[in-house]
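Late entry, written up from scratch paper. The run itself happened at the end of the previous shift, but nothing got recorded in the book at the time, so transcribing now.
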Amino acid sequence: MNESFQTHLELNKKIAQNAGQIMLEGYNKAISIELKGRANLVTEYDKKTEQFVISELEKAYPDHSILGEEGSSKQADPNYRWIIDPIDGTTNFAHKHPYFCISIGLEVNGEMAAGVVYAPLPQEMFVASKGGGAFLNDKKVSVSEVSLQDSLLGTGFNPSFPELIEANYKHYQHFMEVAHGIRRCGAAALDLCYVAAGRLDGFWELALNPWDMAAGLLIIQEAGGKVTNINGTPFNIEEPSILASNGHIHQDMTDYFAGQ
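Output as recorded:
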């Protein structure tokens, strides 16, 4: 494992654990909620968590760039960019549904180098560094080996892009007919980690942001999985769609999407 990436990873883990405690403070009491869209929520704890993470990163890496979901972005050294989702699954969090997480990824020279996704309620820490493998609570994980007909898939419906929801209903129906089942859990960063750990065999979504995908992207790749655009073209974190899988079902899924 690259020693520099490992150093970044250890910092990520410490920050994520401490941020998780801030999230749990909000989870266990009444909180204020704002609307960024009809069903696009932000809470005071999204902001508190992001402010904490960024303050810790700026102490350690004052010259690095930062991209945060809640607007705390910073343009600095373009070769190092931290990509942060303080609470992925805010709607779950606001409704006291336990499926949510924090995602922190480090991009170096345009490629993901380290990533952490921490789900504080089950205390599950998914981590990866480039070339170093993927781990869940310090135990190495890898993707599944099942075929599409034996698979459990995941997807998401982003309320910020209502024009894509109807299209995804069609995709959902198709894969319900060919796979064992589909789960829509509401936190893409954690869904990607579930693919890495073999809890899901594939995941797709039509409209995501870089902070939803950054850390999970690397964790899947280091677990032996495959990530592309929805149509099978090379993945670009600045583009909205993603298809992530165990690799065995990838061609079947891209063949379907390419034909739509």
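The mean pLDDT is 93.
(Scratch paper discarded after transcription.)
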